[in-house]
Amino acid sequence: MAGAEYCVQAGQATDHTCQGQTENVLTHDANTVNGLPWDPGTRVTSMKPKLIIGNKNYSTWSLRSWLLLREAGIDFDEHRIELDTPETAAKIARFSPGGTVPVLQLGDLCVWDTLAIAETVAERWPEKNLWPADADVRAHARSICAEMHSGFHMLRECMPMNCRAMGRQVPLPDALTDDIDRIIAIWSDCHRRFSGDSGWLFGDFSVADSMFAPVVLRFRTYGINLPESAGFYPHRVLESEAMQEWLAAAECEIEVIEREEKGR
User: Fold this and answer.
1) What pTM was computed for the model?
2) Which of 18, 27, 45, 186 could form a disulfide with 23, with the two C-beta atoms 3.0–4.6 Å apart?
3) Contact status, residue 185 vs residue 201, Cβ threshold 8 Å
4) Which of 208, 218, 215, 9 is nearest to 100 (CA)?
5) Is 61 exposed, middle or buried (0-12, 13-18, 19+ CB in 10 A)?
6) Nearest to residue 111, comparing CAs of 49, 161, 46, 181?
């Protein structure tokens, strides 16, 4: 399904795009940045990053990586691959040995899987402070990101992201309402403990905000009512210029993946 990390059968295809490129190596002087250990020998490419994504209307994992880079102010090129076509597998295989989008290219390095991309971006651009500075808060942020990455299966199955759609209605079995309630609890807890007046989950924009942003669009499409305590984060996400840019692009897409068009 397009709402998951989009998987294809890539066979034995190899990554031709990531080979044979050169990079300039930069170093960072500090031993730690934002509380994270930093190896001065870490290689940082000066080549412009390239992000390979799927359809903006449907691909939640693509949105997560795209929003992280855009909201952090990191300049990058994007390459969009239309999902759910006979050519999709071959096109993705040019970039991803794992057969998934998104993929981040940094010179001759390719990073796939959204959480791996997030960790790599946070390491390569430590000045962007994409994890909370406090170690305990950072551990909490990582925990909810990992929970989003591996959990909420009923939410993904029953309420696929569909940026263009509004007013959709789907059945709400107990397992789905359990997922919804858990997300409400996460957002409410973060607002109470960490976000302050910013609206972002941990005060400043972080990896966690990129991980939960597609859920905001799911709740918008299917009309999920939220308590006030959980409404600050969705409001902040939707007023983001980066998110508005993504939504405008999704509106312009003409492709339709029928299995993602639920609740009509």
Assistant:
1) 0.84
2) 45
3) no
4) 9
5) buried
6) 49
Residue 202 is encoded by which pair of tokens? 């941990």
Please list the pLDDT of the chain residue by residue as tens digits (264 residues). 444 443 333 222 323 333 333 333 333 344 454 455 545 444 444 689 999 999 999 999 999 999 999 999 999 999 999 999 999 999 999 998 899 999 999 999 999 999 999 999 999 999 999 999 999 999 999 999 999 999 999 999 999 999 999 999 999 999 999 999 999 999 999 999 999 999 999 999 999 999 999 999 999 999 999 999 999 999 999 999 999 999 999 999 999 999 999 999
Beta bridge partner(s), residue 104 = 51, 111
d(CA 225, CA 231) in angstroms, rounded, equals 9
Question: Counting every residue, how long is the chain?
Answer: 264
* Contacts of residue 29, Cβ cutoff 8 Å, sequence gap at least 6: 40
Contact 114, 33 (CB under 8 A): no
How far apart CA 81 and CA 230 sit, in angstroms, is 34
> Which is nearest to 262 in space by CA: 156, 149, 153?
156
How far apart CA 207 and CA 241 sit, in angstroms, is: 17
247 within 8 A of 214, measured Cβ to Cβ: no
Domain boundaries, the chain: 6-128, 135-257
Write the CATH number of the domain with boundaries 135-257: 1.20.1050.10
Q: 242 near 71, Cβ under 8 Å?
A: yes
